[in-house]
Amino acid sequence: MSAPTSPATGGIDPRGPRFGAGVTAVLLAVVLLLGATTAGGALLAVIAALFALGAARGAQGTVQGLVFRTFVRPRLAPPAELEDPAPPRFAQTVGLVITGLGALLGLTVAPVAIPVAAAIALVAAFLNAAFGFCLGCEIYVRLVRLRAPAPVA
Amino acid sequence: MLENALLLLAVLALAGVLGALWRARNGVARRVAPGTVVGPETLGAPLEAHVTLVQVSSRTCATCPPTARALAEVADARPEVAVVHALAEERLELVRVLDVTRTPTVVALDAHGRVLARASGAMRPAQVESLLESCLEPLAAR
What we know:
The complex is a heterodimer. By secondary structure, chain A is mainly alpha-helical. Helix content of chain A is about 70%, strand content about 0%.
């Protein structure tokens, strides 16, 4: 039996990832406006690169995280509580997979992959920013169950 | 460009509806048809209390720690209620028996390990109270 993940030491300000998701949502909205074009695919690739930073270092290690710490957090009251960095980092990894696949397919064989991937990622980023939606809460257990299928009775 | 703008509006509207549904569903208690039983071995803890609240969490779950605090706050005031925490990654059998698909999932068990009620998503203390109420009713009727 283990206690749920606690932000014991070195937690992050939970408002940081939500701010970052808002920035990402705006960028993804621009991709949707550009549509299935090279410009749209290029911006989607940039967004994928931003997600790659978050997947490797956590949401606090992204460009959006740097903007939050430098310009936004100094204007806010201290956070009520700190949060474990693992959940937003998982969401960054999922974002990398979706936008990376979209940019790769979209710029090579199927341009329609650009708006499709941007729309999926935009829904997730918008839900995160506006509702505090936590992707790791919703899909991680399903992935774990897929990876370790039930033993055949 | 106009079509793209309409598509953007449609995607944002869909996300808004999904978000409202998601928020309304989180932490809402559901009575469960009797059938599923969880033994102490599957649970990894003894079933000693009148009602045991099992919280299934995961390492990537941001809403699990605040939900755990809500459970502790309610259970601390009720000696007949115990709380058990399980990490989904470490208790796959429990995850399958309870058919957990999202975290946190909170399940109420009676002293025999029978599932009485469940909820998933972030829970506030008031929602933990109503989860307990929804499973104390069938217990009283027995």
